[in-house]
Amino acid sequence: xxxxxxxxxxxxxxxxxxxxxxxxxxxxxKGYQNIDSISSKEINLLxxxxxxxxxxxxQPDQLFMVAGHVGGIYSNMKRGADFLYxxxxxxxxxxxxxxxxSKNTKILFTGSTCIYPKENPQPINEDRFLAGKLEKTNIGxxxxxxxxxxxxxxxxxxxxxxxxxxxxxxxxGPNDNYDLENGHMIPGLIKKFYDAKxxxxxxxxxxxxxxxxxxxxxxxxxxxxxxxxxxxxxSEIINIGxxxxxxxxxxxxxxxxxxxxEPKIEWDTSKxxxxxxxxxxxxxxxKIMPEYKPRSFEEGLKIVLEYDF
Length: 309
Ligand code: GFB
Description:
- The protein is α/β, with parallel strands linked by helices.
- 42% of the residues lie in helices and 14% in strands.
- It contains 10 helices and 12 strands.
- The chain is globular and about 55 Å long.
- The structure holds guanosine-5'-diphosphate-beta-L-fucopyranose (GFB).
């Protein structure tokens, strides 16, 4: 096992994103001092030469590979080819470059719960990986993440790389993307309700309101990633979810309560519902990290409102 020490040389690819910035913040809070947070402006992970150069020179002890081209359901649907190409290329560039230039680096690769089939017994356990047909709205992203997971497995088997792969559920938190068209549902709802409260507007939400989602606070996910980097070396993928989910309508009700504002809501049913439900089974994670206890949505929401609004 490679030990994550306080003076370990740690790189975070995607360090300015939602999860990456949370990992950097939590690493610093835990006393890690030697952290290199890399954004796409510094190193373009689509350019293999840039990735190789960085790894050849830096040789980090640990690498959190949390960079990605991400977005909500609408953006995934409209630009599926970009999601496929960019996420696949970034993942493969990183694994191949690590193999060639920095073999002692331990990598944590983040997949996503959208790698699981569209239909599943709930909650979804990790054995559902590759067990059925995928949801169409985000198939490009899902296939790219599946490629990354398989790369993690095969590069370990063939070249002895030190990799672990985790599957975070839907995340939200400080520093989220509040773009109403391209962002995810949780930040989208928060922004719509917040703006409507300022202007006393009607709100338009998408779909039927019936699909169910988990919502994991980014810093809770970051704590798990750091814990697993330190304590887990297994080859099995691990869900990072909450174990509890709500319908979109229930999320809207919760945001209403916290903001103390009751707007008129219209539903745009021309927009897709996507996967109906994807509650994660977190038994495997709890066995490794018994103290894991994700915070409630209301608690996380209050922090986001303070930080981002
Ligand atoms: O977070 P989200 O965009 O993506 O949530 P997924 C989509 C669900 O929320 C659909 C409903 O049922 C939408 O109809 N929804 C309601 C809204 N109002 C809104 C709104 O204002 N904005 C948005 N965005 N949705 C993502 C994948 O899927 O899951 C990602 O697209 C990733 O690639 C992530 O895998 C974990 O949850 O459907």
